[in-house]
Structures are given as structure tokens and as C-alpha cells.
Amino acid sequence: MYFLNQISETISNAVYSLFGDEAIAKPLVIEQTKKVFVGDFTLVVFPLLKFSKKKPEETADLIGDYLVNNSSNFSSFNVVKGFLNIQLSHSYWGELINNWCIDESFGIAKKESGRLYMVEYSSPNTNKPLHLGHLRNIFLGDSVANILKANGHKVVKTQIINDRGIHICKSMVAWLKFANDESPESNQLKGDHLVGKYYVEFDKAYKEEIQVLVNEGLDVEKAKLEAPIFKSAQDMLLKWEKGDVEVRALWSKMNNWVYSGFEKTYNKMGVEFDKLYYESDTYSLGKLVVESGLDSGTFYQKEDKSIWCDLSKDKMDDKLLLRSDGTSVYMTQDIGTAVQRYEDYPGLSGIVYTVGNEQNHHFKVLFKLLSKLDYSWSDECYHLSYGMVELPEGKMKSREGTVVDADDLMDAVINEAKLLTNERGHLEGLSEDEIESLCTKIGLSGLKYYLLKVDPKRKMMFDPKESIDLNGHTGPFIQYGYARIKSLLNKKKSTKDFIVKDVEFKSQELELIKSISIFPEIIRQSSQELSPAILANYLFSLVKAYNSFYQSCPILKEEDENIVEFRLKVSDLTSRIIKKGMFILGIKVPERM
RNA sequence: GGUUGCGUAGCUCAGCUGGAUAGAGCACCUGCCUUCUAAGCAGGCGGUCCCAGGUUCGAAUCCUGGCGCAAUCACCA
What we know:
The protein has helices at 3-19, 49-52, 56-70, 90-102, 132-150, 166-178, 184-187, 191-215, 220-226, 228-242, 245-269, 279-295, 330-344, 360-372, 406-423, 432-452, 464-467, 475-491, 507-517, 519-529, 532-552, 561-585, and strands at 30-32, 41-44, 74-80, 83-88, 116-120, 154-161, 275-278, 300-301, 307-309, 319-322, 348-356, 381-386, 389-390, 460-461. The chain is of the alpha/beta class. Among the domains are: 3-88, 2-Layer Sandwich (Gyrase A, domain 2), CATH 3.30.1360.70; 165-261, no CATH class; 423-585, Orthogonal Bundle (Isoleucyl-tRNA Synthetase, Domain 1), CATH 1.10.730.10. Helix 15 packs across helix 16 and helix 18 packs antiparallel against helix 22 (561-585).
């Protein structure tokens, strides 16, 4: 049994014996003892006073006495006001460490849960390259998938690619008009960047045309609709929907440019997907589902033929599902996609949608619609909503060119890692390939950790200077801790069958052990909250505890062989947790740096 | 205007299923490398936890009301 449960059960038994079953009707409040007090665990006794009918101090004393007298796991206790601070015996800690060390998968679920979850993330449009906002999304989703796996679930990593619609047509129109057949091959530009370039070109030309029309006396709204280039885009969308061969060919060609560009970006990130969905495939299923919802009376039709869902009972505005011309909207596609997914994976236990909080309302409505359509799984859909990434100078706006490009950012962060690592003289004796590999690990860890350490649901500030920092609360700090342990273990390995016993731990050793002890709980909690930030912050505190231990407890110099073995063992265990934990965050750790 | 989320040190963030003297990192200041990697460690400075009420033995945490910021409420995606 997980030892925290074991401890709380023992304490619970003590309370039961002393004060009866009513006293344990509510869960006991047991927490790790705050640093300023002496002890390992603290029982808050205030809630027990009405059962003990004694003062807080006396109540705590009674329980403390009982524990120490009835279990060798507890060595001593002290009472401060209504707080019972309990210390575990060092021999019990030693026993625990032995167990953790021989457990290859310490902290990770031993048994499969039998559940299969789908995690959706990234889900870009195919008209422009990925940017900083996508990075938070992708790192989050990828890590959440790993967290679910670490808790014994099976996971399908997926994305819905928004490969159709008016915005895609804009790039296509602009390319036809301005590109002179420019292709990724002809000018060595990544495909997604090339297509993005023409999306911007479209916008530029569009604005100019609007201005011309306005100068001719049209009002702005009208001009937006009348601009020739906009009309061509609309025209192209109609042709696309009708399956026009030439338009489809161009669409296909440009989308493939984008996909190969994305591919490179995902490779660099170290991210991959198990299953891809394309809106061009799922929107028509969405239409069918909406139409059958109309037949069954779930939805209603207005005079102009548009189809709606009445949400007044749910205190929301009615939602449009098919336009009067019969074309689909975003919501239609999302309904189709969800239905398709449950058809593809009948055993699915749930879908996690990693999508920004700007779409909170959209998903609330989507899940409500699925429920109205009587899909039993509608309440298994979960919107993992995360906050926007903001820059020191404000929000990213594509129109104002303040968007931070994902490829540029990764390159910058890796280059910076090279500079800083070189400054420290840590690149000596490495080949070009090794330097590349090491600095990629370091740079990306800085970036990923920076984006993951903040609670997903909060908006966050992205400061470029901080994101490439190697000191303090950063990915490289954790990597460095790992590399130091590895360097140590290369000099002397712990003996496999050594058993820790009769070791009196120094305070730094005990702090480290305590930090290690909660790793399984952290893995569980990260999954419950779908929050890599919990794990990220934990790993930082673990490494801090280790560094403090490392500083104050010499290992190779220590004479007592028993202590040396213990310290090597606990170092090895720490390194395994760091590696595993960072892996779950999607971050690689270098063996040396 | 309605709905939802957020407001903690100069800055970026933890802590929030109520618990003790609210914690980290950055920045600034002091020490520590002939000793296992100083990308480190030890310490200092720094707080009306937005405001006002309420519940409670106990509130940064829960409730109500303000103030401020953000998102959203599209025949956009």
C-alpha cells in the first residue's frame, strides 16, 4: 500500500480507538509538517475536540502517546497548540527507501486502468505557421497525455486539423495572384511559412482594395463585401465545396506544403500524434447529425431554412448549426468530429480537448448539444481550457506582426543555450553532433518548462529573456541537477543488494527523502487536475532538496561505507524520478552538461 | 449589459477540498569553488494575500457585495 495511506490509516485507527467511530466519520486532516516546526506529518486535532471532550493539547498528547506506543513506525511527537507533529522512525524511513529503490516503476501506475482516453491538442489552421500560443497548447496536451499514461490509462493523441474554409481560400487566392508559382522547393522556405506569407499578402491586398472602394464613396462594411479579392475567395470556397477539380488540386498542394512544414516543427519539439482528423472529412458527418437532430425534433428550423438549437432552458442564446444556405459552421464540424471519434474508438472513456479559454463558451455549448442529441458519452468530454500567452508588450496580434513564431522561438532558444553553455566551457571535447543534441535539449527544456510550470488555466506572461534563462526555477536547472547526479554515479555506483538500515539521517537527507516520498502522489494529482504544472513545480522542489543534500552531505569523501551506499542509493533514486518526471513533461535530460 | 475566469513581494509565479509564523524564482545585497559539475549552496532585503462585510475555534483559501483586468455572448474559426 502507498505509505501515506498507510500512515493515515494508522492514525485513523488510533483516533478510532481513543474516541470512537464518530471521530473518524470525516476524513482526518493530515499534512506534511511545515518546515518551521519539528516533525514529518501533522494531524490537526481541532475537529476532534468534540469527540475527545478535552483541550486541544491534551487531545493531541493522547493521540501522540497512542501512536508512539502502538507502532514502531512512529518515533516521537510534539504538540503545538492544536497541532500534533509526528515523526517517523528512521528505520521506517529506511525501510521505505529500500522499497522505492527496488521498485523500477516507482510512482508510476503498476496496473492498467483499462481506460482509453483521447487527448486532442495543437489542432492548427492550415493557413499559417505555428506560433507561441500553439506551443503552450502542444506542450500541455502532450504532457497531459503522458500524465494519463503514467496513471495507467491508454491514450490516443490526436488533433483536428482545420484544413478547409474561407481562411484557407484566402491563402490560395493570394498565391494564385502573387506567387508566380513560388513553392517551398523553389525558395527553400518551409511550406507552412510560405502559405502563411500569402495569407498575409491576401490581407494586405484586401485592405488596399477596401480603401480604394471607400475612396470611391462606399461605406466600410459594404466595401469589405465588395472587394474583388474577397469575392474571389468566396467564389473559391463555393468551388471547393462543389469539388471543383482545379481548386481541390491547389488546396491539396498547398495543404501538403503546410503539413510537411508542421512535420518539421513537431519533430523538433519531439511531439507526435497517433491519429489525425481533418475537418474536410468530418464536417459532412456533422451536417448529417444536425439534420437527423432536426428530424427528431431536437433542433428547429427557421423560415430562412437555417437550423438552430433552442438553449433558452440552459440560459444560453440559441445556437446556429447550419446556415440558411445549408453550409456548416464550426460547431457543426465539432459535432461531426466527436461522433466520428466515438465511432472509431467505441471503448473510449473520454475526450480531453486542449483548447484556449477563449472557447469556453463554445465547448459548453458543444457538450450541451451532444447531450441533447442523446449521446451517452457527452459528459465524458472535457475541455482542458488554458489561458492565453501574453507578451510584455501586450497581446500577440497577427495583424500587427507581434506574433512569436514557433520555429523562430525554438531556434533562438537553442542558439542561446549554445552561447551560454559555451561560455561555461561545458562544450569542450564534444563533437558537433553532440553539441547540437545537448543544446537542443537544454534550449527546449527552458522553453517547455517555462510554458508548463504555470497553472494551465491561468493566463501567463511570456518574457523572452526569462525563457532562455538557465538559473533558478527553470528546466535547465533541473537538467543540471540530473547531470550532476549522473556524473557522481559514473564515479561510483551503488551496490545493488545494499539494504539501508540503522542510518541516522541528517536533516537535508530527511528533507530529500520526504520530497521523494510524495512523487506517486504528485503523479496522481497531476492526472486528477490534468495539470503538468503540479509535476513541474514538484520536480523543481525535488531538485532543490537534492542540491541542498548534495552540498551538505559529501558522498565520495564519506568514510562510513554504510552512509556512502545510502547516499548513492538515494541519489540514484532521485535521478530516476527526475528523468521520469521530465519525460512526462516532454523534456529530455542530458547525461552530462 | 449578461455569463465565466482572474487579482498574493518591484517583476514572474506557488499555496486555494478552511488550519500554525503566507512560500519560490528573478532583481538587489553578503558569504561559500586546491573538496563529488558554482547552470550550485547558505543567508539578507522585500507582503493592507484588490477593497468591504459575513460564516468559523481558525479565512489568502468558503459566501455576499464592490473595484480592476481578461475572455465570451457571430449565418467567424
